[in-house]
From TrEMBL:
Keyword annotations from UniProtKB, A to Z: Cell outer membrane, Membrane, Receptor, Signal, Transmembrane, Transmembrane beta strand, Transport
Chain coiled-coil ranges: none
Stretches assigned to the Outer membrane protein beta-barrel domain: 572-886
Major localisation: membrane
Organism of origin: Pedobacter soli
Protein name: TonB-dependent receptor
Compartment(s) where it occurs, according to its Swiss-Prot or TrEMBL record: Cell outer membrane
Keyword Membrane: yes
Length: 925
């Protein structure tokens, strides 16, 4: 009987299988025709559920033939329900077109973050944008391994990043143009920089989870500010959706570097943010008791785990007229690096430097990053809207650098006998912050043909480095055994205060009148801005030295801690009377006129922008400078023309020409000098702005949802490019300064490819950029005078790439997405080719950074109730940053440390370790 039942069951199963088939289909946005990723597809009788993949497809297997009902739903879209007839074959062509269910207030459409920050939305914005741009969506940011805006930018084609001392990204380099050639926007408004020297913004200030999307502009139109030869970076902050939404995450992690060694720290709680000069007056004589001992109280221990969290809450009220969003982020991380640095010098007539000493440095840094964003928008009616948004970011970096330098009778030769040691320890607290408040209005008149937009902006930026403390001690190494160190005779301890603030008040106005010309459209636009920027800079320095007797005291014998030192202030009134204490200002008035002509096959945008600049400085304590006061006044006309030719609904050609400028930074034109760790630096009051003609051509194909193929080429011709080089003082030739200058005309051109493709659950993002640039700058070489036999210096011109430009940049990311099971995973690799890191004064002695690959990864698993768990890993290959000189001195071959390879000499190597993070995320709606 059992065998008979088994046979009957088998026959029934075979009969059911014979009448079973599969269903495959696509889900599209009805308006754009783009595929929708992650839509929920439900098949009834029996009920089965799946989700569309990365290419908008879905599939049900083993479906019985006959009548079936399918429903498709997705947030912000109307649910579709269809009854279909399932046949034995040919069920793979089903198509569902979904209509938007966005809530509208007349013609004011309120879109949710779920749509505006998706990859589909990003591709749509790229396709429709006037300027050539690339966009990283909020969703891509969320699932990426990156925690800051700086690291996000490296995923964009043509963009590489410059890293800080702990290996974290800090500045963006666009298309081989150094960070000085781009500017940063928040919601389309330029923000000031807290940097103490330059005007570019350190992007590591901004937590990534405050963003709705990141836009990288590679070309300009007349309504955009004209000082972006490389491009511009626009951070679009989170917006208020159509319904209540909560997004929160918290995570923790650790750096592999501090599993392998201890974290060095000091007590920063008692640091004085003002120097004794500021606290007690200019005639006050400072003593050792005026300085905190905490900056010399070093501790070595394992750090606490990293802590990272963010929260955003948003809602619309009053029948969607009022929108409110509040978002905050906090990151407390411990990072660092292990660095080996070989000091070098050019001697005699040899063209290549010889290694003079070796320094080993350990950096330990605690970073506390805070970001706050709030926005309120109100729609009075379909013609008048107002919005007020505020953003505040703050980064505190508490750093301790331990270093020991080794020299053998003036050169580095470990086989030469006893070594001279110098121990340098620096404790530094740096606090940078930016605040921006923008009131924006939009109005429509004359049946919506005339539009007026305006913005009133207040921004401020601050950089504060209080009581930066350095201590230097001497020692001797005998038979590889280090003896106890002693204080040097002159000024072993320095205390430095550096502070600068920027305040911007600006107003923007944009006017637009729309004409209908049959089936074509014409928009005439005009507007402008006025900005008043005020900057103040403060610098003060105190030197502390021991008495002649105390200079011979040994560490560990005569004193057990640096806090026990008994020192005398060498300059008790401080050194505030220097050229780095100054006030500066910049007033910019700009106006533009432009048109936009649109037809079925062509879009033209052209016009010109006029910018008038009045930039000046005033040294508060002039000390014999030739130019204690100075200013630069100039006016620039910046034309541009952009054309888009539509080859089809999904393909287009995008061409652009625009002229742009690059203004000197405030510090760069102030004729003061500052002593850095390895060299002296000085401004140049005769420094001119750079001007550039920029040409772009790009083929753009958007074949499906979130997919694209972009193939472009660019050319830039830069007049008076600004580069830093080592130059001898015109009066005192023995003084060498690292100073900015203008160097003729530079050319920069290249090509880039950007490809995104999805195959159901697998996605590939790849881009590659080739860049070639050339600039000619003066270099020093040495030769023997045939008459006197003395060594003399000669100046020669050398052709080289622009500073910071990599010939090859590439990104490759492999993504996995299973919407049904809630998995998102990404493996991302970024390659940066070799580039000049430091320009030397000597011929063939520039420092180059070796090309490298950084690998990062992230995985996220979503559960019911809006909960998800994620893991992120950064620098998982522990890729070092290495600097080298092309060529070598024969003396360096004697050093048995593998410094010379393939004809190049290693100068520096930095290892940062891997960083791991695990956390959970909660989403409501």
């Amino acid at each position: 009987m059992n065998k008979l039942l088994q046979i009957l069951f088998f026959l029934v199963f075979c009969a059911g299988t014979a009448n079973a088939t599969k269903i495959k289909g696509h889900v599209y946005d009805k308006q754009t025709g783009e595929a929708i990723v992650g839509a929920t597809v439900v098949l009834d009788n029996p009920r089965r559920v799946t989700n569309t993949g990365l290419d908008g497809t879905f599939e049900f297997k083993w479906v019985s033939t006959g009548s079936a009902k399918i429903s498709v739903s997705y947030i912000t879209y109307k649910t579709i329900t269809k009854t279909i007839t399932v046949e034995k074959e040919d069920n793979d062509h089903l198509k569902f077109y979904m209509e938007s269910d966005s809530k509208s207030l007349d013609d004011v459409t309120i879109q949710t973050n779920a749509v505006a920050s998706t990859d589909q939305g990003a591709r749509r914005l790229e396709k429709n944008s006037t300027q050539i741009m690339n966009i990283v969506s909020g969703k891509a940011i969320e699932i990426s391994p990156d925690l800051t805006v700086a690291n996000i930018t490296q995923r964009v084609s043509g963009v590489s990043i410059e890293r800080n001392s702990n290996g974290d990204g800090q500045y963006a380099i666009l298309r081989g143009m150094d960070k000085r050639y781009n500017y940063t926007l928040v919601n389309g408004v330029k923000i000031p920089s807290p940097d103490n020297k330059y005007r570019y913004v350190p992007l590591d200030l901004f937590p990534a989870d405050l963003l709705d999307r990141l836009e990288v502009y590679k070309t300009l139109t007349p309504n955009l500010e004209g000082d972006a030869i490389g491009g511009a970076i626009n951070m679009v902050m989170k917006n208020a959706p159509g319904k209540f939404q909560v997004n929160a995450n918290v995570s923790t992690g650790y750096s592999q570097l501090f599993i392998d060694r201890k974290f060095a720290s000091y007590d920063a709680s008692a640091i004085q943010y003002k120097s004794p000069y500021e606290l007690n007056g200019k005639n006050y004589n400072a003593t050792q008791n005026d300085f905190t001992k905490g900056t010399l109280d070093y501790k070595y221990k394992s750090p606490a785990p990293n802590l990272i969290g963010s929260l955003s809450v948003s809602q619309r009220f009053l029948d969607n007229k009022l929108g409110v969003v509040l978002a905050g982020s906090y990151q407390n991380t411990y990072r660092g690096s292990n660095s080996t640095f070989y000091n070098n010098a050019v001697a005699g007539t040899d063209a290549y430097a010889v290694i003079t000493s070796k320094s080993y440095r350990e950096f330990s840094e605690q970073q506390q990053r805070t970001g706050l964003h709030g926005k309120v928008d109100y729609s009075f009616n379909k013609k008048h809207q107002l919005s007020l948004y505020n953003v505040y970011v703050n980064l505190k970096n508490q750093q301790l650098r331990d270093a020991v330098s080794t020299t053998y009778n003036g050169v580095y030769n470990p086989t030469a006998g006893n070594a001279e040691l110098v121990y340098d320890t620096r404790s530094r607290l740096t606090e940078q912050q930016i605040y921006n408040s923008t009131l924006h209005g939009g109005h429509k008149f004359f049946d919506d043909k005339f539009k007026v937009q305006w913005s009133a902006v207040y921004s401020s930026a601050k950089n504060d480095v209080p009581e930066n403390t350095s201590i230097s001690l001497n020692g001797i190494e005998q038979n590889f055994q280090r003896t106890r160190t002693s204080l040097v005779n002159t000024n072993p301890v320095t205390r430095r205060w550096e502070r600068n603030t920027d305040e911007d008040i600006a107003g923007y106005l944009d006017l637009n009148y729309h004409f209908t010309l049959g089936e074509n459209k014409l928009d005439i636009m005009a507007g402008g801005l006025y900005r008043d920027k005020q900057r103040s800079s403060f610098f003060n320095n105190y030197n502390l030295a021991p008495s002649a007797a105390d200079a011979k005291k040994l560490y560990g014998v005569d004193f057990q801690s640096y806090t026990d030192l008994n020192l005398v202030v060498s300059n008790p009134t401080g050194a505030v009377a220097n050229s780095l204490t100054y006030d500066a200002s910049e007033k910019i008035a700009a106006g533009y006129g432009m048109f936009k002509y649109s037809s079925a096959k062509l879009e033209l945008i052209g016009g010109a922008r006029v910018e008038h600049t009045n930039q000046g400085y005033n040294l508060l304590f002039p000390a014999g400078e030739t130019y204690p006061k100075g200013n630069q006044v100039y006016t620039d006309v910046l034309p541009s023309l952009t054309a888009k030719y539509f080859l089809s609904d999904k393909a287009q050609l995008h061409a652009s020409y625009y002229k742009a400028l690059n203004r000197p930074g405030f510090y760069e034109i102030v004729p003061g000098k500052v002593v850095n760790e390895e060299f002296q630096e000085r401004g140049n009051p005769n420094l001119q702005r750079a001007l550039a003609d920029n040409f772009d051509l790009r083929y753009e194909l958007f074949p499906g949802a979130s997919e694209q193929l972009l193939i472009g080429t660019f050319y830039k011709r830069i007049k008076n490019p600004i580069e830093y080089t080592f130059q001898a003082d015109a009066v005192r030739g023995q003084d060498i300064y690292y100073t900015p200058g203008n160097f003729g005309t530079a050319n920069n051109y290249g090509a880039e490819v950007d490809y995104i493709k999805y195959f159901s659950k697998i996605g590939v993002k790849a881009n590659y950029t080739y860049t070639h640039s050339r600039i000619v700058t003066p270099k020093t070489t040495r030769t023997i005078n045939p008459t006197t036999g003395d060594i003399q210096a000669l100046s020669v011109d050398q052709e080289r790439p622009l500073y910071g430009q990599s010939e090859h940049i590439a990104n490759l990311s492999v993504l996995f997405k299973d919407t049904k099971k809630g998995w998102d995973a990404q493996l991302a690799a970024a390659y940066t080719g070799s580039r000049i890191n430091t320009v030397s004064q000597f011929l063939n002695n520039d420092l180059w950074q070796k090309g490298f690959v950084q690998m990062d990864a992230s995985v996220e698993k979503r559960f019911k109730g809006g909960i998800s768990v994620f893991v992120k890993g950064n620098n998982i290959l522990n890729t070092p940053a290495k600097l080298f000189i092309k060529g070598t001195n024969p003396e360096n071959n004697k050093i048995n440390e593998d410094l010379v390879k393939d004809g190049n000499t290693l100068i520096r190597s930095d290892y940062y370790g891997q960083n791991y993070l695990v956390g959970f995320r909660y989403k409501f709606n």
